[in-house]
Every structure is written in C-alpha cells, then in structure tokens.
Batch of 4 targets.
Target 1
Amino acid sequence: AQRVTQPEKLLSVFKGAPVELKCNYSYSGSPELFWYVQYSRQRLQLLLRHISRESIKGFTADLNKGETSFHLKKPFAQEEDSAMYYCALYNQGGKLIFGQGTELSVKP
Amino acid sequence: NAGVTQTPKFQVLKTGQSMTLQCAQDMNHEYMSWYRQDPGMGLRLIHYSVGAGITDQGEVPNGYNVSRSTTEDFPLRLLSAAPSQTSVYFCASSRRKFSMGPGGFGNTIYFGEGSWLTVV
C-alpha cells in the first residue's frame, strides 16, 4: 500500500536552531516526493520536490531509498517558518498522497 | 492566468442540504482532484480525474459526487450534507506527466485557496 507517514504532529524549536521534519513513505515503484507548506488558512504551496532538487526558503530534503525517508531540513529556523508542513508522494496513476502533517512552531 | 479557482470560500449548510463546490483551472491541466483537510489527518483524496469525462474515487469518496465535462472544471457535489463533512476542501490540478518532464516549480501540482465548509 502507498503511504506517507509524518510521525510528529508538532515540532517546536527556537529561532536559529536546526530543524528536521520527518517523512517516511511506502511505495513499490520509484517515488516522486514533495514537501508542501501551508501558512495559516492559506493554500498549500510547494516547498520542494526531490526530482528537481530545487528548494525555497533554505529548506532541503534528501531522498533515502534505503530508509524510505524524505526528511525536510533547515540549518537555522526562522520565526516565519512557523507553518504546517506536509510530505506527499505522487504515483503515476495521478494520485498525490499526503502525510498527516507536522506543525512547526519557531519560538523567538 | 488565475491558476486554480475555488468557490465558495466559506459555506454553512444544514444537515441534509445539497451544494456544489466549484473548481476551475485555466492551465489546460489534465489532472484534477479534490481533497479534504481535517486536523490530525492531513489531506485525504476524495475524487480525482485524469481527463475530461474520466473520474475515479480516492480514499474518502462516500457522500461526494464529481463530474468532469470539460478540462477546465471539476465540481464536487455534496448530495445530502452531514456534520462529518465539515472540513476544508482543496482542489488541485496538474499536467498529466509532470514528473516525466524537466524539473522546475512550473511542472507541478497547483492548489486552490480552499473552501471552508461547516455542516450544522
């Protein structure tokens, strides 16, 4: 079964601290993985996709096929990074499957 | 270029009422889909479409109907609203083979702004 798991509902860090939001997936084929961010009551925005290795706002994520993980990282968190983050897997059938989401709270 | 447009943004319904959430995109995308977002559950796929005239069920299709008579529009119908359908609904669209093409943020999935639905 195709599944995306984000084990942390809430992650709270102080400004300037490193951040890692965990994402694990299960998929039999070659995964197409994404991270989306949602600021309060706004639409989801693409943060990065593994296939292009692009990112915005200083976030990176590396696909680890051995561990079936796609963790999101940022070396120094900023207060404006506070948001809901979703890991998602796209299958070739046209479905984008989301994890449960992790709320990141960056304290001053 | 408006992207993905959803209406209405907010709606309150009484149990048993019917309504349609509208979704339109102007990017000539083949794929369109509807998700609902609930606390602690992430986004769950309701229905999706891979092209005009073709629809299929997602994870949580019960209580919802869709149709895709044109490439641009993908309305979501609630035939008899229930309190369990109180949620935030997002429409999304993408090109069919976006993952096969070159990278870049233009080659990806676009979301609407969301529709907040409350069923009382």
Note: The mean pLDDT of chain B is 88.
Target 2
Amino acid sequence: KQEVTQIPAALSVPEGENLVLNCSFTDSAIYNLQWFRQDPGKGLTSLLLIQSSQREQTSGRLNASLDKSSGRSTLYIAASQPGDSATYLCAVRPENYGQNFVFGPGTRLSVLP
Amino acid sequence: EAGVVQSPRYKIIEKKQPVAFWCNPISGHNTLYWYLQNLGQGPELLIRYENEEAVDDSQLPKDRFSAERLKGVDSTLKIQPAELGDSAVYLCASSIGTSGGTDTQYFGPGTRLTVL
C-alpha cells in the first residue's frame, strides 16, 4: 500500500528566505506526483504536476523535483513572501491503484513579515 | 471558467440525522472525486466516478454513505445516519479524465460538516 509522508509538519520562516519542503512515498511505481496548496477553509489548488518520466517542474518562484527511484520529491520556494503562508500537500498517483491520488498530511508554512 | 462548485459550505447537524452534499464539476470534466479530509491530514478518497459510473468506491462506508452522479455531471454524497466521527471537510474534485493518469485534479472549496 502506498504511503506518503511530509517533513516538516510545520515551518515558520522570515520573509525573503528560500525554503524546501519534503515529500516521501513508499512505492516508486507512480504515474505522477502533484504539489497542492491549501489555504485555511479552502479547497486545494494545484501548483505543479511532475510526470514519472520528468525530474523537475518550475512555475515562477516554485520548483519541484522528483527522484522516483528513491521515493522523494522536494518543493523549493524562492524568496518566500507572507502570501505563501498555507499548507502544502503532495500527492502521488500510483501505477497500481487506478487514477486515485494518495495524499501526504501536508506541511503548514508560515512566512513572517 | 467556473471552478468546481460545492454546497453547502457549512453544515451543522445532530447525530443520527441525514445530510447531503452537492457538487458541480468543471464543464467537460468526465472524472469526479469525493474526498474526506480530517483536520491536519490530507484528503482521503471516498469514491471516484468516470462519467456516471462509480469505478472505485472501495473506501466508501456503504452502510451509511451513498453517492450518485446523475447524467455524468452533478453529484450528491449522502450520509444517513450521521455519526460524531463523520465531522470533517468533504471535498469534491474533477479532472478531464485522460488515460494513464496524467491529468490534474481541480478541487472545490469543500463542505465542512459538524455532527453534534
């Protein structure tokens, strides 16, 4: 059974810092991995989708990498801003479980002005 | 383009009462998902539809939960009777539904259920 973990559970940084969020998954047989952002009381917003054949994806100040063989992904946020404060979740779509995503518990990020 | 719409946004009921949640996916999206999210955790899939067919309902507690997707568009998730442990956020998501699992999911704002 695929399991997804995220470290750290919570992170607080001053504005302007670069930071890295970590995601680990137990089964490397995946179609893709997706990073989401969730603001309090809101649904999830897709940030980046990495296919299993890709190593990384970039969007603005965000860069996500994928090391499928080691079961790891990182989300790099450059020059963090208070508006980046949210919970960040990663989710993997296993090859053996249809099209269903398996989500991690998320990392709660606070960027202090 | 409108996103995924869910209603109600909040619902407070007493235990043993019935409750229903409604979801309208993005137009043209064939796949619809219902998730349950407990506080501090990631969403867990309850049921996935491909058009009007429920293709994965293995995580749906069928003794009290039911779902339907009429004409492959809107969907309703029902709980009857509700229990205290059902208090959570119920999220609906949709995706275009391409083969190979390469498409992304778009989420609605969720319905926060409180069972007293």
Note: Chain A has a mean pLDDT of 93.
Target 3
Amino acid sequence: NAGVTQTPKFQVLKTGQSMTLQCAQDMNHNSMYWYRQDPGMGLRLIYYSASEGTTDKGEVPNGYNVSRLNKREFSLRLESAAPSQTSVYFCASSEGRGGGYTFGSGTRLTVV
Amino acid sequence: GEDVEQSLFLSVREGDSSVINCTYTDSSSTYLYWYKQEPGAGLQLLTYIFSNMDMKQDQRLTVLLNKKDKHLSLRIADTQTGDSAIYFCAEEGSYQKVTFGTGTKLQVIP
C-alpha cells in the first residue's frame, strides 16, 4: 500500500528553468493538495483539487500551476523557477471532512 | 484569516510526559488534528478530535480540547527517544479548509 508517492525526491534547478513535480495516490481519495514547507513558516497551501476536474488556488499560488490529470494524479509545475521557490514540497490527499491528510515524503527543491 | 499557533521547541527527559500546546482562532473548527514529522519525511497523522469532544485517549497519546479558549494539547506519556520529531497542530474549519501551525520540535533527552 504505497499511499502518496512523490517524484522526484530531490532536484536542483537553475533560475528560469521549468519543472513538474509529480504526485500520485492509490487510496481513491477525492481531494489532493500541494504544500510548501519553509523553516519557521509551517505548511503553506499552494493549490488544491477538491475533486477530479477541479483546481483552486491556496495561500501562495504565484509562480505555480497545477494539473489534476485524473483521480490519482495531481502535478505541480514551476514555469520559471526563482530562488524564492527553494523549499520542500509536499503533496497530500484526503478522503474528506474528518479524514485527515495522507502526505507524501516530499520533494526537496533548490533553485540556484 | 484563521491562525494556529504553537511554541517552537520543547525538551523533555526520556520517560517523562510531554505536553505540546496549540491555540487556534477559527470558531467554526470541526476537527482538530495532530501530525508528527520525522526528519526527512512527510507529516504523519497521529490522532484527531472532533470539536464536540473534550478528550481523546489513544495508547500513550491524550488529546485535550478546550473549545471555549480555543486551546488544544497533546500529551505523550512515557516519552521515548523515538518520539523526537516536529509535531504539528491543524484545525479544519469551514469548507474543509485545514490550517496548520508552525510546528513544535520535541527533543527527548536520554
């Protein structure tokens, strides 16, 4: 039972490069989320998808785009990476109210 | 907007009890959660409490909720070195929106 799988685990980008972070869940959850975690700032929501076919902005969406490819997969794209996007990115999924979140193990991204 | 606050750091001796505190502002909170994050890993759901409950116990973990004061605590009995981690409080309010605290780093001294 894999849960939430994120790839890659580590990535170094040059300023201006683009990349896509992949996330897949095998729990048949409707809702999926992308967070970034920075020291002293906890988790900040970038984008979420309440169900297949829908996406919405979170607290810090600027510089990011997302795609809910199907029920299982939710990807996060950085079109033109900036050093301010250096962070640890977590994908999570949820079965709904009261179910809590299942998190992936994270992608550690450095933009130089 | 909603806010969830936690102290940044807690140090306890192995075998003692740990109490991690959290305050929140959202009066419409329905569920409150505790997550654990070990180094290099994602967050793992430890336990949760529904807002109409005062207490929930799960083995070594006890969650206390004071809804009037919007105060949540997590007590870990007989704290072990394996409990060293960052603990996040989170509250779920309207429209299933979840707000996380900044995390409390628990250090267990052998």
Note: Residues 33 and 48 of chain B are 4 Å apart (CA to CA).
Target 4
Amino acid sequence: NAGVTQTPKFQVLKTGQSMTLQCAQDMNHEYMSWYRQDPGMGLRLIHYSVGAGITDQGEVPNGYNVSRSTTEDFPLRLLSAAPSQTSVYFCASSYSGGRGNYGYTFGSGTRLTVV
Amino acid sequence: QQQVKQSPQSLIVQKGGISIINCAYENTAFDYFPWYQQFPGKGPALLIAIRPDVSEKKEGRFTISFNKSAKQFSLHIMDSQPGDSATYFCAALGKGSARQLTFGSGTQLTVLP
C-alpha cells in the first residue's frame, strides 16, 4: 500500500497562474480532505469529501476548487494563484471518518510558493 | 475562529523529563480528540486519541488526560527522548456525517540529549 500520495512535492507559481495538486489514496477510504499548514496556525481545512461525487467547503475554501469523481482521487485546483496561497498543502483520508485506531492518514505534503 | 487552542507554542525538555502540551476546545460539537505528531518534511501521523467519555488513555510513554467539564485535554510524554522531538498537534473531530478535524496551532517539542 502506498497510502496517500501527493504530487508534486514542490511547486513555484507566478501570481495568476492556475494549477492542480494531485492526491491519490489506495486504501479505499471514503473520507478525503485538503488542509493547508501555515506557521503558527496549525492545519486549516480547505475542502473535504465524504464519498465520490460529494464535496463540501471547509474553513478556508476561497480560491480553491475540488472534485471527487472516484474514491481514489481528490485533486485540489488553484484557480488564480495569489501570494497568500503560499503554504504547505496536505491531503488526508480515512475510512472511519477519523474515529478509532485508524484516524486520518496524511500525505507527505506539497510545498507551494506563489511569487 | 480558532475552536481548538493549544499551548505552549514551543517546549524544550531534557532527556528523561516529562513533556506536557495542553489544549482547550470551545464548543461541544466534537466527539473524538486525537493527537498528531509531525516530523520535518513529513505529514502529520496519528499518535494517540481519546473519546470524551474517558478521562485518561495511556499508550506506552504517551498519555492523554481529558477533562470534559473544563473542555480541556492534554498530552503527557513520559521519559521524553530526543527522537520525540517533533511538532505535536491536538485536534478535535466534528460530530455528524462530515467528520472533519479541527487542529490546534501546534507545539514544537525539542528534547535535549
């Protein structure tokens, strides 16, 4: 099992460019989420999905889009990158909704810099 | 609108000492409280978790203490080791079908050899 795979690991964008951060999991998890991590602010929820075809907004959704056409994949799209979106992005998944001994499994992150 | 507050921001302890990290939550819409450990360049990894109907949970050197009436919970690391040096996040899992995590701001722990 690869777990949660995020690509790319690093990315530099110019202001106004768009891009898609990829996230794939091979654990057949229903729940998938995207977080951004900024110094001193912990991880903040951007968007999440409780199953294929179902997505919803988290705490900081502006400037991001998601879709979930398959159980395995949950891409995050930046529509028009801004310097405020410079951050480390983590994708996470869980089959149990985060309870029990399984919790959420996180990918290794994408470090994004917008110049 | 931080619903989970974590302290301290950083913590330095000697090898063999006890590390204590505290968290408080602001509403009752949570029903599960995990702690995550994160090493540099890696994603957070589940360390230990507790349900609100339990006052304490221990796994090896790691213990969660939970005070439901005060809406507070804490992580104790006994016999702290240099390998424990990492960032620790408390979190709270929301009720209902969404089941999403709200994180504290993190504590950077350094254990001196």
Note: Residues 22 and 75 of chain A are 5 Å apart (CA to CA).
